[in-house]
Amino acid sequence: MSVIKIDIIGAPTAFGQPKLGVSLGPDAVRLCGLKARLTALGHEVSDKGNVYGKYRAEYGNHSERNEEGLMNFVQVKDFSEVLANTVEASLNDKHFPFIVGGDHSLSIGSISGITKKYSNLGVLWIDAHGDINNSDTSPTGNIHGMPLGVLLGEGSRRLVDIHHEGAKLKHENIVLIGVRDLDTGEKAYIKEHGIKCYTMSDVKRLGLDAVITKALKHLESCDGIHLSLDVDSLDPLEIQGTGTKVDGGIFLSDMLSGLNILSSTKRLVSADLVEVNPLIDNCNETAEKAVILSEYIFGQSQI
């Protein structure tokens, strides 16, 4: 296994959704030994600490709706800009940025930073949700349900143009995996733009290993692959500490096998691990499983 220079970047944002505890996710995962266990795999690991913008999520400043109906817009935009700069700097050092969240709105910032270096980036979006809403289609206004839409150039231009102008991703360079809770507008958008989407029905029918293999084939022309892994993609029987659980998800053993296939391709250039919320967890079990997922992203195997 080749040595990877990993930068752990904590992204403790909670502004993209309504539950404050997700801002504690990066430190909860650290407490379970993230750096030590990635180092034990033979990698060079540097913990860059947590990224902070001008605002901190706390009781009383976490429900501000702007004129477009978007929740905490200013805070999400600010955090995304700071995170994008941090991620781009990691890539400039020829390191692998591993962003630990925090809610999924952080991917606006992380992928905006990555696409300054990779102009034809492929994305594996493993999630119970599509996260491809905009201000018109979102039933809540929560921006953690919109990062893919923003990155594809939809919705508020002030979010779309973060870090560098325009859409950051191409429709044909995205593969959704494990989705099972899509809003009506998301379903229409996915069909209209021909986005590759493997629902949980597909995963159960084909097997996650086969789905990951097909996804990699679909993205073979990309100049790098980013993994965005939401822990709510796992079945709630396995994961308690996340804010938007949906029944009928991926089981941990299957996920580890699929990640093993992904890591063995050596095409990953960056990754997000998001939506760990220790305040609604059971004895930090979700953070512990997040560390196990991280090990498999970086080359751990079952034998």
UniProtKB/TrEMBL annotation:
InterPro entries: Arginase (IPR014033), Ureohydrolase (IPR006035), Ureohydrolase_dom_sf (IPR023696). Keywords: Arginine metabolism, Hydrolase, Manganese, Metal-binding. Pathway: Nitrogen metabolism; urea cycle; L-ornithine and urea from L-arginine: step 1/1. GO terms for biological process: arginine metabolic process. GO terms for molecular function: arginase activity; manganese ion binding. Pfam families: Arginase (PF00491). Its cofactor is Mn(2+). It catalyses: L-arginine + H2O = urea + L-ornithine. This is Arginase. It comes from Jeotgalicoccus saudimassiliensis. The gene is arg.
